[in-house]
Amino acid sequence: MAAKGEGSNESKKRKRPLTSSSASDSSKGEKPSNPKKVKLPSSSHPNKGANKPFKSTKQQSQQQQPLKFKSKFGKSDTHGEKTVPKTKRELRLQAKELAEARKKKRKPHYTLEQELASLWEKMRQRNIAKQDRSKLVSEALRKMKGKIHEIASSHVSSRVLQICVKNCSQAERDAVYEELRPHFITLACNTYAVHLVKKMLDNASKKQLAEFISFLHGHVAALLRHMVGSVVIEHAYQLGNATQKQALLLELYSTELQLFKDLVSMKESKLVDVISRLGLQKTSVLRHMSSVIQPILEKGIVDHSIIHKALIEYLSIADPSSAADVIQQLSGPLLVRMVHSKEGSRIAMLCIKHGSAKERKKIIKGMKGFVGKIANDQRGNMVLVCILSIVDDTKLVAKVVVRELQAILKELVLDKGGLEVNSDLDKREKSSKVGEDVEEDNSDTEDVTTESDKRANEGGKKDPFLRRQELLVNSGLAESLIDTCIESAGELLRSNFGKEVIYEVATGGAGGILRPDLDAKLEALYEAIASLAAQPNSEEEEEDHLLENFHSSRTIRRLVLDCPAFASTLWKKALKGKCKTWADGHSSRVVCAFMESSDSAVQALARKELQPLVDGGILKLPENKQLEKQVKVSKAK
User: Fold this and answer.
1) Spans of biased composition, class Acidic residues (predicted)?
2) Exposed e or buried b for every residue in 287-325, given b needs 16+ CB within 10 A?
3) How far is residue 160's CA from residue 162's CA, in Å, rounded to a whole number?
4) pLDDT tens-digit series, residues 467-505
């Protein structure tokens, strides 16, 4: 029974096909290692695919071929097969063709622009004849006729139009103006077309300029808030006369002036006068101006003089809190971009005067890297003077301002701006309000640098002499300045501006601030000047002798009169025994200064040698009542 049961169970089990390995294993009497079912090729099962149709050898070979795909270079490629790569030149040409096709599809005037570009390359050459350039310009304008406003926004076409407007005839220029006339406001906001608009303004007649400014009416505030459009407003403001400038400004003051054009034809230059003339509410004007100015400051559009003028007028009527908000916004790198204009430098000085210590610190740190440029600027140098006169944090000023000034001392002392920075300025009493300072600064708007600008520094809490001592002497600036004067003594004495600097240094500075710490350096300076004066006068020299030059002879004369130590060194080293040689011409003024000196020791040095020259008529003393009085007194004694 047991045997039967086992046999029945074995019959129920499915028979498994044996692989070669399993067969070998079974032949050895071992169990197969892999229990999984292994599929055999169809050939081993002849009955399994009996119903399928028979495939020929050709069909089987086609079925076994790899799939084909299209490569990125446009050719069909076969998987697994090697393709011949294109050369770099072929790839460049193919990419260029694709780019050209895309540009033609995107730009409706692409073909015209290409033609204009070829003409532009010819007409922009410097060695081309004027007639040939005129022909090329006329041809380009003929091709663009009727499409100028459409292609003016293109990078290429804008350049072509600029050179055409510059070199075309007046009739052709008028034709371009008439075609662009309805589109000026739109073009003013385009990155490339704005240059064409500026070129049109540069070459516009008075009538066209006035008409263009009238087109801007109602758009001034909006364009000033635009990074590109503000450039056009500033350009028109610079080209316009006083009435046209005022017309552009008045739109920023009030909504009424922006809407009603006939109210703008006034001649009042100050905002306070405009308010009183039209009976406007001050609060309303402040609110409107704040809404115009705040977005401009937030975007950092502070380079234009029209904005500087608007800010000055705003500060003239603003309450302390509103003025403080503007000062806080401007304190920093923004202020550096404003100091080049008259109103901008005044705003900078107001920010320094009325700003907090934190805001002053931001302003000074924002000037890092630009101190040299500011010092050489006609307006900006007054801002540096204000910082040196007001800010009590002398360590910060020495670190940022003085350090950069030391690097350009020679350039600075020969420049007019350097003369302003080195000069002593008058003081004035401290004002408590920003508006009061602005009104005083606006008292004389025609002068380039008014006295109110020079008196803008009111002084900080620190003692002025102590501040000067820390900035000038302790920082090492004075020593570097004296070294520069020694190295370039001849050049400075002959210079119209440098002579003033070397005079101030040689006399020890205002209040004798350079003495006694730098007495040895000053003696070296006296020796350098005397050595140059002791050189023989030769006609072969290109430059005039130091005693014969107009500027240097008068500066040395002043030093003889005001600095006895220098007079003594000059006499012993350069003039003793040689006065007869220098008794004529510009040098005679230097020799006579020894007789005119108020110091008895200086007179005693030269009297023995000079008196015979005076008595003999060789040396003529200047007609001076004070000198005659001194001579009479000495004779009476």
Assistant:
1) 437-450
2) ebbeebbeebbeeebbbbbbbbbbbbbbbbbbeeebbbe
3) 5
4) 999 999 999 999 999 999 999 999 999 998 889 999 999
Q: Which two tokens stand for residue 47?
A: 């009955």
Sign of the four-CA dihedral 408, 412, 413, 414: positive
pLDDT in tens, 215-229: 998 899 999 999 999
Tokens for 242, please give them: 């006083």
Per-residue CA distances from 191 to 89, 197, 230 (Å)? 35, 11, 12
Q: Any residues with CB less than 8 A from the CB of 392 and at least 6 apart, and which?
A: 357, 460, 461, 462, 467
State which amino acid sits at residue 451.
E
Q: How far apart are CA 562 and CA 494, in angstroms?
A: 19
Kindly give the interhelix angle for 498-506 and 477-487, rounded to the nearest 10 degrees: 120
Q: In the prediction, which pLDDT does 24 show?
A: 44
Closest CA to 85 of 97, 73, 76, 94: 73
The token duo for 454 is 């020079």
Query: DSSP alpha helices (H): ranges in 264-304?
Result: 271-278, 282-299
* φ and ψ at residue 76, rounded to 5 degrees: -75, 135
The separation between CA 363 and the C-alpha centre of its own chain, rounded to angstroms, equals: 16
Q: Where are the alpha helices (DSSP H) in 203-262?
A: 206-215, 220-224, 229-239, 242-250, 255-259
Q: Tell me, what amino acid is at 21?
A: S
DSSP conformation class of 341: S
Closest CA to 603 of 621, 582, 625: 621
CA-based radius of gyration for the chain: 44
Q: Which among 549, 541, 400, 524 is positioned nearest to 471, based on CA atoms?
A: 400
SS (H, E, C) 75-126: CEEECCCCCCCCCHHHHHHHHHHHHHHHHHHHCCCHHHHHHHHHHHHHHCCC
Q: Please, are residues 71 and 77 in contact by the beta-carbon 8 Å criterion?
A: yes
- Domain residue spans of the chain: 320-405, 476-534+542-635
d(CA 22, CA 531): 118
Alpha-carbon torsion, ordered 431, 435, 436, 442, to 10 deg: 130
Whether the pLDDT of residue 61 is over 70: the answer is no
Cα 554 from chain centre: 39
Residue 146's region, left for phi above 0, alpha for psi from -120 to 50, else beta, is: left
Residue 78 main-chain phi, psi, to 5 deg: -105, 130
Dig out the tokens for 202 from the structure.
């540069």
SS3 percent helix, strand, coil of the chain, rounded to 5, is 65, 0, 35
Name the amino acid, one letter, at 363: I
| Omega cis (within 30) before 516 | yes
pLDDT in tens, 513-555: 998 889 999 999 999 999 999 998 887 777 889 999 999 999 9
pLDDT at 29 over 90: no
User: How far is 14 from 387, CA to CA, in rounded Å?
Assistant: 105
